[in-house]
Amino acid sequence: MRDFSSDHRWLSLNTATVRKQGDLIAIIDACARHGIRAIDPWRDQVAAVGLDRAVRAVHDAGLELSGYCRGGMFTADAAHRIEARDDNRRAVDEAKALGAPCIVLVVGGLPQYSRPGSVASKDIVAARTQVHDAIAEMLEYAREADMPLAIEPLHPAYAADRACVNSTKQALDICDQLDPERTGALGVALDVYHIWWDPELMPQIARAGKDRLLAFHVCDWLVPTKDILNDRGMMGDGVIDITSVRSAVEAQGFAGYSEIEIFSNDWWARPMDEVLRTCIARHRTVV
Amino acid sequence: MRDFSSDHRWLSLNTATVRKQGDLIAIIDACARHGIRAIDPWRDQVAAVGLDRAVRAVHDAGLELSGYCRGGMFTADAAHRIEARDDNRRAVDEAKALGAPCIVLVVGGLPQYSRPGSVASKDIVAARTQVHDAIAEMLEYAREADMPLAIEPLHPAYAADRACVNSTKQALDICDQLDPERTGALGVALDVYHIWWDPELMPQIARAGKDRLLAFHVCDWLVPTKDILNDRGMMGDGVIDITSVRSAVEAQGFAGYSEIEIFSNDWWARPMDEVLRTCIARHRTVV
């Protein structure tokens, strides 16, 4: 396993971590101040400053991207399916312009939450079938653009409203079905927050292998969790044995960024520089 | 599948559902008023009125039990392990006195939450090993008392603080290891709240079979969930296709109670009779 204790060369900042403290330009400036070399920006943050300006700012700062957040939300009723498809194609184009190595896919839960306005459903099996088919469709477009897709399994707490792919196994099953040759066009984004509880985690990481491990995200699970979406912890403040998961991922050959993504009302309320200083310290000590 | 639309013969009330509105005696009186024929009482509610009085009240009301909540919280450091063992033996004795058909086991998460005062750990793999060993030990005592143990897999949102058995597969793996002959001494308690999201749910229910299906609990998953423990929904108010799960369980031969267990700050704030009337109406229409 790589030694992170003496620098933060392999720290990437998911820009949602400080989304309340400033826009994407301000975040990129802060990364420069703190010697952070990579980010994973969100689409709404890019849109807020304009794609061209975002591309220039990333380039001028000499930043790499560790991903682009996010594509997906595939589940929709018939009336909203074209919208979902086109939206995902635009995500591919944006990721390409930004030089992202992959698009992170949050696949959507039940259609009424994934694409608001869709007819309500309780059929999670149907949602999963739709996700499979929509990824197959998006993959054709993404392959042409040479843009890998990284399916992110989300914690089962989000099965209804954010993603009905809830385990690494499920994500890898889709990869095996749609890209059996392991071309690199399809893989997974593993976030310790979503997967740490999974009894099958270690064998599934081994099954993924280097070809399928496109992104690795860290934060922590707090006890108690006060908000199901926005109370994620700074690494070291919760119960996840983060190092053991990173060790398993790196044992497969993963050598990319360790991306910090923290949705937290607490951390959003602190100054950006304090958050980044803390991220760097924890990256060196508990990641 | 049984038709529940015309009566509530197979409704059981988990007494936690109205724990804030009255003590166990008041709940038993309310069940009599509403023609509810079975309950699943919690140990603290029994202790609050005294075991002997609880036994008499259950008997005098002609109530059946659908389970006894709860044994478990097995994970502990060395200093707290004897306490955990003895506590679970007392649970067996109480369940026997009350005439319960099984004890529901919530197995515990990390030791510092399961048995407060235990040395903190982030090792969920070790916790799971400890759960396996402790169930094996409890099973010896429970077999002598002829008291079946029902392992309840809990939603992964509770993996840290309440139960590190988080899927039906995991619970059944323990059953197969400790009771390969399917004697009826060990099985599972399935609560739709905890398992509805699981992609492997249907095959695992089939794997369980009648022998292992000792209890069936219902409530609903609300979107958004405002509190990770105490914002469970009344059946029909959330996203779970409850009928499809009951259908699968009954297809295996399960013919017991459909037990309503709702931890909800909202429902705890309403009069007991209103809650029970709503439970009965929903039992007939959406369970």
Automatic annotation (TrEMBL), chains A, B:
Domain Xylose isomerase-like TIM barrel as annotated: residue spans: 28-269
Keyword field: Endonuclease, Hydrolase, Nuclease
Classification via SUPFAM superfamilies: Xylose isomerase-like
Superkingdom, natural source: Bacteria
Gene3D superfamilies in the record: Divalent-metal-dependent TIM barrel enzymes
GO molecular function annotations of the record: endonuclease activity
InterPro entries for the chain: IolE/XylAMocC-like, Xyl_isomerase-like_sf, Xyl_isomerase-like_TIM-brl
Pfam families (UniProt xref): AP_endonuc_2 (PF01261)
Protein name (Swiss-Prot/TrEMBL): Endonuclease
Organism: Bradyrhizobium icense
Lineage start: Bacteria, Pseudomonadati, Pseudomonadota, Alphaproteobacteria, Hyphomicrobiales
